[in-house]
Design a protein that fits this description.
It holds the Pfam family FMO-like. This is Flavin-containing monooxygenase. It is a single chain. By secondary structure, the chain is α/β, with parallel strands linked by helices. It has two domains: 5-172 and 287-410, FAD/NAD(P)-binding domain; 176-283, FAD/NAD(P)-binding domain. It is 25% helix and 18% strand. The protein contains nine helices and 21 strands. The strands form six sheets. The protein has a five-stranded parallel sheet, with no helix packed on it. It has a five-stranded parallel sheet with strand order 10-17-11-12-13, covered by helices on one side. Helix 1 (13-27) crosses helix 5. The longest helix has 18 residues, at 380-397. Bound molecules: flavin-adenine dinucleotide and ligand NA7. Flavin-adenine dinucleotide binds at residues 9-15, 42-45, 50-52, 68, 70-71, 77-79, 84, 130-131, 167-169, 171-172, 293, 329, 333, 336, 340.
Length: 463
């Protein structure tokens, strides 16, 4: 009997956690050789890191692939680092001392790499290879996967796999709604997926559509970089933060328009009948679950939810009944790195035969119970409690070895956000795993412009 063959798609935090636990357990001798799967990890970018690998590109890349990156310059962690810290690799271990609770993107990326380098994971990733199609062949009882070698511009021969682990992320294909008149709006219209720099908003009046994390950050970053005003337009409910005077909220935009003369501005009308003069439109309207390479019957669809339907343990794709397609990181996210990590260890235990699946009926009932509970979760507090239970359940099932519940940190973070949305990233938390209390940042978030690791570390030391 040959060992199971696994196709792992994507080398972001989720995919790398699968490689991490597999290699860790292999080195610990915890997996019998006959249970060790043969994993091939395909990553379409030229390096590991997923969204944390910044790219200046937008649209399509040099190989004609859709650009994966949705992160922009000047992105600081939106949650405290203490809420995403790996228990077996703390920030203190990585940086050799305390750092503030809200680091910029480069510092988080550096931290991720520190953990990946512990087991020299990069050579295990086949970079610049984009998965083009995944089909399940019932006759062979295998997945058939076609991959494109981007550098050679060549489709490789189809390969058979017993399992597919999809870690391709779901904050990469923008959800782009239409608003009446938008095709004649005289200013720039962009989705946050394509945002890279905030400098162009200096001196401008900005309309932000959306009322979630991207909308919040777009409003603050625009102001930070000199926008004169920001109007945020919500579909369901306002963010209702204590905004600076230059930021306001309106109900849903119903129409936009403007004057075609060069240099003239535009306007937006809202469902309460009010109007605003605007120069730019930022669509902070979220992302689509978009897996065009997966066969129809394997594709997860729908909105961004804490528990997408049809996934046992939020991971095993139930439709079709072969239970050998897994999705990691497909949830909406309060917990991030540690949630992916618990999911990854659960996945590794399943792939190596240490976790056995219950009957189809039991799996469907379990998934449905989570879906039903998620539907009843409305407030941030309830959502955090929900995801905590989800993560802890996965960790318990997979013998994770640490208590991943950091709900208290998230509750406190929500309180800070409600107190003052402009200063919550300047607050400090204590680490559950190192015991270390974070120092204040070198500069307040609303003043910090240089997002480089060097500058961040220098400003920490300057404190
Ligand atoms: P991703 O990071 O998206 O990685 C998926 C990988 O799959 C990519 O490398 C991609 O190239 C690859 N891939 C996709 N399709 C294919 C294919 N067909 N073939 C081969 N490879 C493929 N989280 C936080 O914890 N803190 C934050 O401050 C934070 N800020 C965020 C800001 C923005 C703007 C966005 C969009 C997200 C943010 N997140 C944040 C959440 C983020 O989703 C997670 O931190 C994390 O990156 C998800 O990891 P992942 O591995 O599941 O997916
Ligand atoms: P989210 O959290 O999925 O939020 C999307 C927002 O966009 C949400 O407020 C939606 O309103 C709004 N939306 C979606 N469609 C429309 C239309 N048609 N009209 C108006 N508003 C709309 O995405 P984010 O980009 O904010 O965050 C994703 C990740 O990136 C997150 O994990 C962060 O870490 C960064 P709704 O409330 O559904 O009515």
């Amino acid at each position: 009997m040959t060992n199971k063959r696994v196709c792992l798609i994507g080398a972001g935090p989720s995919g790398m956690s699968v490689l991490y636990h597999l290699e860790r357990l292999r080195l610990e001798g915890a997996i019998a050789p006959e249970n060790l799967p043969e994993v091939t990890c395909y990553e379409k970018q030229d390096d590991c890191g997923g969204l944390w690998k910044y790219t200046w590109r937008t649209g399509t890349d040099e190989y004609g692939e859709n650009v994966h990156g949705s992160m922009y310059r000047s992105l600081w962690s939106n949650g405290p680092k203490e809420a995403l810290e790996y228990p077996d690799y703390t920030f203190e271990q990585h940086f050799g001392g305390p750092i503030p609770s809200f680091p910029p993107r480069e510092a988080l990326r550096d931290y991720l790499w520190g953990r990946w380098n512990k087991y020299n994971l990069k050579p295990m990733v086949t970079l610049l290879h984009s998965v083009q199609s995944v089909n399940f062949d019932p006759a062979k009882d295998k997945f058939t996967v076609v991959v494109k070698d981007l550098k050679q511009n060549k489709l490789l021969d189809a390969k058979d796999f017993d399992f597919v682990v999809n870690c391709s992320g779901h904050f990469s294909t923008p959800n782009v709604p239409y608003f009446k008149g938008i095709e004649r709006f005289p200013g720039r219209v962009m989705h946050t997926h394509d945002l890279r720099s905030w400098r162009e908003f200096s001196g401008k009046r900005v309309l932000v559509v959306g009322a979630s994390y991207s909308a919040e950050d777009s409003a603050l970053q625009s102001i930070k970089f000199g926008a004169t005003s920001v109007v945020c337009s919500y579909r369901s409910k306002p963010m209702d933060f204590r905004w600076p005077d230059s930021v306001s909220e309106r109900p849903l935009v119903t129409e936009v328009g403007g004057d075609d003369r060069v240099g003239a501005g535009g306007w937006a009308r809202f469902s309460d009948g009010s109007m605003e003069q605007i120069d730019y439109i930022i669509l902070a309207t979220g992302y689509l679950h978009h897996y065009p390479y997966l066969a129809e019957q394997l594709r997860l669809r729908g909105p961004n939810l804490l528990y997408p339907a049809g996934l046992y343990k939020g991971t095993v794709w139930l439709a079709g009944g072969n239970n050998r397609l897994l999705y990691l990181g497909a949830q909406d996210q309060y917990y991030t790195y540690t949630m992916f990590d618990a999911q990854a260890l659960w996945t590794v235990r399943y792939l190596t035969g240490a976790i056995q699946l219950p009957s189809s009926a039991e799996m469907a009932a379990d998934a449905k119970a989570w879906v039903n509970r998620a539907a009843l979760s409305k407030t941030d507090q309830e959502n955090i409690a929900f995801q905590t239970d989800f993560v802890v359940d996965l960790a318990n099932q997979s013998n994770y070895g640490y208590d991943l519940d950091v709900s208290k940190i998230f509750y406190e973070w929500e309180d800070h956000r409600a107190e003052d949305i402009t200063t919550y990233k300047d607050r400090q938390f204590g680490s559950k795993f190192s015991g270390q209390q974070a120092p204040p940042p070198g500069q307040p978030f609303m003043k910090a412009i240089d997002d480089s690791l060097e500058h961040f570390l220098a400003s920490c030391q300057g404190k």
